[in-house]
Amino acid sequence: MAIGTPSVPRIDPFDATNEQTIEYYYTGDQQNKIEIVIQNNDTGTEAYTGQQTTMRFRYVIPAGELTNGIVYRARLRVIDKTGTTGEFSNWIVFHCFSTPTFEFSNLTDGTRLIASQYDLDITYQQSENEPLNTYIITLYDDLGARILDSGTLRWVDLPTHINVAAYRLNGLVDNGKYFISLSGTTVNGIKVLHDRIGFSVEYSKAMAFSVTELTELKGSASVKIQSNVVVYTGTTDNPDLQYPDGTSVDLNDGQYGVTFDEDYAFGSIAQPDFALRTVLSHLDILTMDNCFLVLSNSDKSQNIYLWKRLGRMFNRTSPSTNVEKIYVDLISTNPISFTTVDGIKQVANYTTHSNSFLMSELVGKSGLIVNLIKKDGLYSIAIELKD
């Protein structure tokens, strides 16, 4: 036999900061060494050359020898044990790209969700602006069995190259535990993967408080009756406030809300936990942003604002249109203290957001129920559809 010529089927795009193995086919006299020559495909200048002693049909390009963002071409030839060289293979063109960032921007390992559905925000970023082509979201149960995948989804590129897509998870069960993964492929064939992360679901429920509490007073033949109801009177600056059905107020002009300012003890663990439940109706005529409820202390130095928001979400199947969704923001002007992961103490205002619904999901519903819960000095908020 004579020395043969290696055949390289393809070289997938790779990150030049990592070593890369190039595999090839070969038939001929026994190989002792393999030689590679790599050139800049645009200029023809030599970027890397080397030899490796191996009988395996592969060449390992060391990390850092090439540069990301450049298109290269490579060819190889075999050297036998006598030092005789064979013919070079044909040139094969390939790309080097930095490893993309591909992740859920609003879901981290250990997150606890509070509803049966959740809008995932997915971000993709690549330094050399290599576009993402397709991606798949896969959901697993707590034993790792696959229970759902999104199918192959097309990506929508945004002008900033820091791209965002949205995907709604539905049917999450109360007290459920899940894992979720994210994988995709760029237009030039780079495989991107976000490792599985775990999350749990615990529905947010309004806490039930007894209207009255009965305690037997032993030895006195009597019973102590204690009321747990506290009545607060709301006020508004609207001089022409309307009561459409005698029990609710019309806040659709977006200029006025209702304020309860009878000295709430914001952020105080000493104040008992509570649940507040309110209903928003006629949502089809609501303005874009509306502060519908304010809880305040007597001098208004500490406030909690509940804002109804209408946001826009990119429609990946039709990039020219946006999809409206509704959610509620809770913003407290009472600073709370917390410690960061690196041990630095910080003080900041308290802000949190509810789950969201598409405006189209409100069709046939009478409104939204807003549940505000205070527990151990902190607040959480969730919304649900009202039939």
Total of domains: 3
The whole-number mean of residue pLDDT values reads 77
Oligomer: single chain
Radius of gyration: 31 Å
End-to-end separation in angstroms reads 82 Å
Topology pattern, helix = H, strand = E: EEEEEEEEEEEEEEEEEEEEEEEEEE
- Tell me about the biggest sheet? 6 strands, mixed
Stretches where pLDDT is under 50 for at least 5 consecutive residues are 265-270, 313-320, 337-347
Strand portion: over 45%
Helical content stands at: under 10%
Question: What's the count of strands?
Answer: 26
What does this structure look like?
This protein is mainly β and 387 residues long. The chain has 3 domains: 20-95, Immunoglobulin-like; 101-201, Immunoglobulin-like (Sandwich), CATH 2.60.40; 212-386, no CATH class. It is 0% helix and 48% strand. The chain has no helices and 26 strands. The protein has strands at 20-23, 33-40, 46-53, 58-61, 71-79, 92-95, 101-104, 111-113, 118-125, 132-141, 146-149, 153-154, 162-169, 177-186, 191-201, 212-217, 222-227, 258-260, 274-281, 289-296, 303-314, 322-339, 345-353, 357-358, 367-375, 378-386. Strands 8, 10, 11, 12, 14 and 15 form a 6-stranded mixed β-sheet that branches. Strand 2 and strand 3 (46-53) form a beta hairpin. The termini are far apart. 18% of the residues are buried.
